[in-house]
């Protein structure tokens, strides 16, 4: 069953309350925590992070690269959620995200897989309700559809 887009936004925003962006200690730690979870639970995906292919959670914690990258990814996720009710801008933001990842030659299946990773992170940090997870998966499906459409249009590998 498809949820109303505003409802998806409300549910996703509520699930992000504890992982706000910010340049204070808590905000910076939120971003690092995502990469600590990511690299610990999906070590094979570190291959895309040049120079950090063997990083452990402790390395992520130590290096300023992931303080910065943590903010970038969190900011992008918070933005995507807030744009879900503004379709043209939502889709434009996604295409630009795909363009910026072209250099990493990612497996195109990872665009959808990201939402399993991210909801896993949210669940690991606290409580993610079934309804919130469903909202993330609906958004993720629409996000992925635009990624694949854009990749195809540009003759790049897609699923
Ligand atoms: C940057 C991989 C999904 C947003 C990067 C970088 C890599 C990467 C390797 C460069 C960072 C570095 O080397 O330090 C991946 C992989 C993904 C994924 C493997 C899927 C599993 C996403 C998604 C978003 C996103 C879904 C947005 C919602 C960003 C942003 C940057 C970035 C904002 C900063 C650089 C820039 O904006 O050009 N990503 N990414 N990524 N990623 Fe991803």
TrEMBL record:
Gene3D superfamilies in the record, alphabetically? Answer: Globins (1.10.490.10)
Q: Which UniProt keywords apply?
A: Heme, Iron, Membrane, Metal-binding, Oxygen transport, Transmembrane, Transmembrane helix, Transport
At the top level, the lineage of the source is Eukaryota
Q: Name one GO molecular function term.
A: oxygen binding
* All copies of domain Globin, residue ranges: 1-152
Spans traversing the lipid bilayer: 109-128
Record carries keyword Transmembrane: yes
Provide the family line: Belongs to the globin family.
In Swiss-Prot or TrEMBL terms, this protein is called Globin domain-containing protein
- Organism listed in the record: Caenorhabditis auriculariae
């Amino acid at each position: 069953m498809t949820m109303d887009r505003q409802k998806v936004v409300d549910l996703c925003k509520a699930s992000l309350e504890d992982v706000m962006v910010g340049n204070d200690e808590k905000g910076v730690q939120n971003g690092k925590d995502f990469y600590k979870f990511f690299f610990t639970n999906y070590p094979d995906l570190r291959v895309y992070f040049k120079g950090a292919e063997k990083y452990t959670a402790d390395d992520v914690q130590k290096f300023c690269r992931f303080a910065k990258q943590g903010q970038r990814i969190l900011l992008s996720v918070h933005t995507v959620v807030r744009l879900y009710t503004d379709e043209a801008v939502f889709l434009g933001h996604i295409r630009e995200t795909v363009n910026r990842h072209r250099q990493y030659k990612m497996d195109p299946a990872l665009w959808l897989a990201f939402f399993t990773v991210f909801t896993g992170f949210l669940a690991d940090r606290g409580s993610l309700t079934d309804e919130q997870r469903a909202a993330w998966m609906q958004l993720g499906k629409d996000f992925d559809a635009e990624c694949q459409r854009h990749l195809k249009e540009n003759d790049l590998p897609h699923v």
